[in-house]
UniProtKB/TrEMBL annotation, chains A, B:
Protein name in UniProt: Acetylornithine deacetylase/Succinyl-diaminopimelate desuccinylase
Gene3D superfamilies from the UniProt entry: 3.30.70.360, Zn peptidases
Domain of life per record: Bacteria
Annotated Peptidase M20 dimerisation domain residues: 193-350
Pfam families given in the database record: M20_dimer, Peptidase_M20
GO biological process, one term: proteolysis
Keyword annotations from UniProtKB, A to Z: Hydrolase, Metal-binding, Protease
Keyword Metal-binding listed: yes
GO MF terms, alphabetically ordered: metal ion binding; peptidase activity
């Protein structure tokens, strides 16, 4: 499509500058100290939607951070695409590991380094700019609605309430989200499933105060020692999760599904080399793709207790803590797993400590159909802009909104992500390739075009 | 001894004010940011020794923090007591748990609350003031030397070098240290043994960067999970340490020693109530006194890895760390145990992570004889000032200097401590009873008196 390439070429620098401005906001939703910055980010997104040509742009207040809404209804008889994204980002620490400041986007060999570069500012902003492109070139073929939230990285806790309360406003035919990855630019892919999440924090209390490890060591249960034994017991020798009932609801993949899944290109030597590990790890009897895409997992996201400062302190601490999350697969539910974990974790606590389990947030797993008009539109759009058909994959991450949309609005979602696993999401030195950014802006109008065409053909 | 009580009564407030001034110095040797304060503390101690009447007071430089020396030689033919203490303190964190600021001494129901109130500022300063008392009342019966160091809480790493280089200067007949506890003021006691120490830091590295726990979780070894499994394996189901060879050198107590040890008053209900724990913990087949006083132990003093900030971050971290220390009993040596731990810890590391073990510092265990002139002098002094004979006990803590003195100077040590286990050493709200402070100042001159008398009687 000539007009697309032309528009992107003519606006190349500005498209990048606007993204950089967006990336400079430290919109960390997990840490209250960034609140003013998160709110400013919402204002910026609203302004950019207006500039792009959206109507009825609103900053919708919630109990937490606001949701930015905007729309362009060209013809009520045409199909409507609801674009979802999030303007909040993960915390940037450990800061010392960033080569350049997380909130000062920097280009190194064709890549934009910044927190949120890929997750999700770089990706949702492609939709704002693709929309501008269609408006400026009079090629918008369908109605479009935007819903950009600010709490995705902390569990989207207020989005459900908003969606329930605004079903009419959000009425659409499909949800389009770019917040996932492709295998590579040579192997474009489309995610057909996402894992759910159950995130908890545990606290183990031993003595009522920190103790001298010489005076009390060996006679009083050390909460760190107890916590390590409790956590260690959560995986057996096959790295199978030991929580009773944890796998009960999991539906085994069919032989065909496993074959299809493992047909996607995967070079284990490359994978290990990229991460500098000698061996992969995981549940016995499954491949890496199966482990990350189709099996539930349990990870310790953080642990702390006792003296963690410089030098040595001979203390037997009063408390030890850990943040633990589980990724869920279709048919498991966040609440049920949270309850199973809590019950089990409390049950394995020895009598000499007190244990507290606090749920943080959760999200439900989801699978997207591969035979829908919307999925076919995405396939055609990618095939045209990449020159080859996308490979269907199962993503390991979680976008709770996907299950929410299906439950509340009866809408299926298309996960048309342009990131790469190597983009270091949630890590220091998160990046997004400039190539992918422009490629997304060029591909998205094709999705709308084919979605409109295939819909009217029905 | 009338003159002692009289002197203390007449100087009660000043004796307290001077200690408060000493406690206001945040002399934390483990944290480089306190360096200027630690050095000021040494100056203060030197000045107070001069004021009390010591000669040849020197601030002796070392590769680390200086050692304050001072002496009073009244007659070369009389015995000489070498008083050891330390002016450095443990870090104060966790700060939020202090009821009043750690470096602003505060009195609550007869107790001085401050970091170092008991360990060891409050205790070594009793000796400075008891020396002043003997000088002012012309009752100093023997020669006295002071050696107050500033690196005890970080392993006294430069003291050995200093002692080796100054054997003549430090020539004495006994070492006297107040840096330990009594069972209670109703049950005065004398420690006859101390445990050694081996302190290490371990680092487990998984992937070369923090990863998104959804994208990689379940397929890449999480260094926290691996570290918890490694630490959990260090104690078996009987809380016996699993490091091969760890107990080889330990000499079992005789039936008599065990009986004597367990005759000391111990109220388990009180012990548990004080710590708010439902059960004690420890190596199967031993009592609490045996576990803390006569058995080697292994404690995790600190652990950290991943995201430990506010809220939730779904990260699979690159690294996890722990600080681990072992308390050693007579016949075990710090270097040998450090080597055994390192070898074992590396040997249990799975191939999918990299493990690094870094020794921090160590100290050798020691047992003090109960039949020496010095021990008997301490017994008589305590019996006179408390009105009952002290109970011999085995301390769980470590004062590496004790073994060092024996090895380098051929001197035995008397551990005449006036603290209490409930003083919260190394913990928030460390305290020292005003009563114990004055009691120490009154008892110490009696030690010197009886030590001189019994020595001349030989």
């Amino acid at each position: 499509m000539q007009h697309i390439k032309q528009y992107v070429d003519q606006n190349r620098q500005r498209l990048l500058d606007e993204l950089f401005a967006l990336l400079r906001f430290p919109s960390v939703s997990a840490d209250p100290k960034y609140k003013p910055e998160v709110l400013k980010t919402a204002d910026y997104v609203a302004q950019k939607l207006r500039d792009a040509g959206a109507d009825n742009v609103e900053i919708c207040q919630t109990a937490g951070y606001p949701i930015v809404y905007g729309e362009k209804i060209i013809d009520a008889s045409k199909p409507t695409v609801l674009v979802y994204g999030h303007y909040d980002v993960q915390p940037a620490d450990p800061l010392e590991l960033w080569k350049t400041p997380p909130f000062e986007p920097t280009i190194r060999d064709g890549k934009i380094y910044a927190r949120g570069a890929c997750d999700d500012k770089g990706q949702f902003y492609m939709h704002v700019k693709a929309f501008e492109l269609m408006m400026q070139t009079n090629t918008l073929p369908c109605n479009i609605k935007f819903m950009i939230e600010g709490e995705e990285e902390v569990g989207s806790s207020n989005l459900g309430i908003f969606v329930k309360a605004n079903k009419e406003k959000l009425k659409a035919d499909v949800v389009l989200i770019s917040d996932t990855s492709m295998i590579s630019m040579e192997h474009p892919s489309l995610e057909t499933g996402l894992r759910g999440l159950s995130y908890l924090e545990v606290e183990v209390t031993g003595p009522n105060r920190d103790l001298h490890s010489g005076v009390y060591g060996g006679a009083v249960a050390n909460p760190i020692t107890i916590l390590t034994k409790m956590i260690a017991s959560l995986h057996d020798e096959n790295n199978h999760i030991t929580i009773p009932g944890f796998y009960d609801k999991v539906i085994p993949l069919t032989a065909e599904e496993r074959t299809a899944l493992n047909n996607a290109p995967y070079d284990e030597e490359e994978y290990k080399k990229d991460l500098d590990i000698a061996e992969v790890w995981g549940e016995k009897g499954y491949t890496t793709f199966e482990r990350t895409g189709t099996r539930p997992t349990l990870e310790v996201n953080g642990i702390w207790g006792g003296y963690i400062g410089e030098g040595a302190k001979t203390v037997l601490p009063s408390k030890a803590h850990a943040k633990i999350s589980m990724r869920l697969v279709p048919n498991q539910t966040s609440d049920a797993i949270t309850e199973l974990f809590t019950k089990h974790f409390l049950s394995i606590a020895p009598a000499n400590v007190k244990v507290k389990v606090t749920p943080h947030h959760g999200g439900e797993p989801a699978v997207t159909p591969t035979d829908s008009i919307a999925y076919r539109a995405a396939q055609k759009a990618i095939a045209e802009s990449f020159g080859k058909d996308p490979i269907p994959t199962r993503g390991g991450g979680s976008i709770p909104i996907v299950a929410l949309f299906e439950a509340e609005l009866g809408l299926k979602t298309v996960l048309m992500g342009f990131g790469l696993d190597s983009d270091a999401l949630h890590s220091p030195n998160e990046k997004y390739d400039i190539f992918n950014y422009y490629k997304g802006i060029e591909t998205i109008p094709l999705f709308h075009k084919y979605f409109a065409e295939l819909s009217s053909a029905v």
